[in-house]
Amino acid sequence: MDVATLKSLKLKQSPVSNPEVAQPRLQEAWSTLDKQQRAEIVELSGVGRASVDRARRSGSISAKIAVPFAIVCGVSPSYLCGLSDDTAACDNAEIKKFLKPFGYAVKTKRGRKPQIATAEEPAPPLEANLPFTKDSLALLTGSLNNAHRAFIENMTHDDIVTFLLALTKKAGYDEKSKQTLTFLKLLLSVS
């Protein structure tokens, strides 16, 4: 798992381990690491060295520290946290399996090649591909009642960002939300 993906998970500092089992496992794993590997755990977790040391000594470790610890040690985070006795190697599948019960969803992004118009066939204007016209948008906004219009006009930047983030998550499993999100993307691209 790369650093950017790890940071994008926004792992929390909530304990996810069985301290009695995790503490000796963490101590043993820590003792096998060199100074550079220990510094890498601190850097990947985004917390201070004191937090990593406290988690290691107490056995009460959060996902934010457990995942980088497992990556550097090459051992399953479930094993380190005392949730499993399986000493499987640490890979993306193990990390996903570990994080899923705690409500984290690791999504891998698949790259796609952008379509580039060749010199023989110029790209059609964006407006030609849109399922709406400026007139249909005026009709849509004209049909709003005053309460809806006031609500939309009074939305703050944070409200809009929160709404879009929630809609993006919901679009992962709901077709109507996916269509709404696509429509909003089209609207934003025309503006």
* Largest pleated sheet: none
What would you report as the Rg, rounded to the nearest angstrom?
A: 24 Å
Q: What's the structural domain tally?
A: 2
Shape: elongated
Low-confidence stretches: 113-120
The end-to-end distance, rounded to whole angstroms, is 37 Å
Along the chain, the helix and strand elements come as HHHHHHHHHHHH
Please give the share of residues in helix. Answer: 55-70%
Key phrases:
mainly alpha; elongated
Task: Explain this structure.
The chain is mainly alpha-helical and 191 residues long. It has two domains: 3-102, no CATH class; 126-190, no CATH class. Helices cover 60% and strands 0% of the residues. It contains twelve helices and no strands. It has helices spanning 3-8, 19-31, 35-45, 49-58, 63-73, 77-80, 92-99, 126-129, 134-142, 146-153, 157-170, 175-190.
Please describe the topology of this protein:
Elements: H1 3-8, H2 19-31, H3 35-45, H4 49-58, H5 63-73, H6 77-80, H7 92-99, H8 126-129, H9 134-142, H10 146-153, H11 157-170, H12 175-190
Helix pairs in contact: 2-4, 3-5, 11-12
How would you sum up this structure in a few lines?
With 191 residues, this protein is mostly helical. It has twelve helices and no strands. The radius of gyration is 24 Å and the shape is elongated.
